[in-house]
Amino acid sequence: MPEILAAVALGIVEGLTEFIPVSSTGHLILFGKAISFNGASAKTFSIFIQLGAILAVVILYWHRFRALLISSPNSPAGFSGKAGIIKLLLACIPVFISGYLFHDAIKALLEPLPVAAALICGGIFMLMVDRGDKNFTYHSLEEISYKTAFLIGVFQCAALWPGMSRSGSTIIGAMLLGVERRVAAEFSFLVAVPVMVAAVGYDMLKSYHELTAADIDLFAVGFVVSLITAVVAIKFFMSLLSRYTLIPFGWYRICLGLFVLGLLGN
Predict the structure, then answer these.
(1) What is the per-residue pLDDT across 9-55, written as a single tens digit (0 to 9) for each?
(2) What is the average pLDDT across 106-116?
(3) Alpha-carbon distance 247 to 253, whole Å?
(4) What does the buried/exposed string (b/e) look like for 171-204 if buried means 16 or more CB atoms within 10 Å of the residue's CB?
(5) Could you tell me the CA-to-CA distances from 8 to 74, 161, 220 in Å, in that order?
(6) How far apart, in Å, do the first and last CA atoms of the chain sit?
(7) Can you give the pTM of this predicted structure?
(8) Mean pLDDT, all residues of the chain
(9) Which residues pair with 138 in a beta bridge?
(10) Would you say 164 and 118 are in contact if contact means Cβ atoms under 8 Å apart?
(11) For a Cys-Cys bond, which of 128, 207, 214, 230 suits 56, CB 3.0-4.6 Å?
(12) Is 154 exposed, middle or buried (0-12, 13-18, 19+ CB in 10 A)?
């Protein structure tokens, strides 16, 4: 497959999977292997295009970020201004520390076998947690406490295992702490912005010497495609959560993981 078409395809995969609990990184690794999109810059490309998906969150939830930066009497109490920023930071601190300490080990796991195992483990965990009959304590972002925000961040660290899914770890962790499903997803989207900007920035600092001028077009195409696709995916995912549980995603993860293990065994 020509590299530019590969960039488009991977941008679509990233945009579709970044915010649903199936692991965008896992899908990018598996799809990249399938189309032979390899090379020194391939892993950095897969990380960089996540910024396109993150920009989709900033666009769709601009009112939330504006309330964080410019608090006003009409801003929602409990998740605006200083209070909202502190909650996001508390949710980010655990993964910032863990990601920094284990960055090289994490990149070494960007292979099909550990991804398949993570997909299966995360899927099983999802089936166990989201049974659809939970009595939730938190029904809005404004109700989430500082302690709960930090604990959600601790759960997010599970996503450092490629294939586990950052959104999946955050959403399931939040639900275990009593956060309603849609609110957990929205909190996951917002936390993704500082986490992914930091992760991509750190990786680019460590990997920029591997990139060449020829990579610029590919990175730009992947970025734009993932942005557009993510906008559509976020809206669709939130509409699904109004009617369904996460169980279908859990089964999808398990089936995909088993399929990959089957291929690796042949």
Answers:
(1) 999 999 999 999 998 888 888 888 888 876 667 777 888 888 999 99
(2) 80
(3) 10
(4) bbbbbbbbbbbbbbbbbbbbbbbbbbeebbeebe
(5) 41, 25, 10
(6) 24
(7) 0.87
(8) 87
(9) 179
(10) yes
(11) 230
(12) middle
Cα angle for residues 86, 91, 96 (degrees, 5° grid): 110
Tokens read off for 49: 């295009």
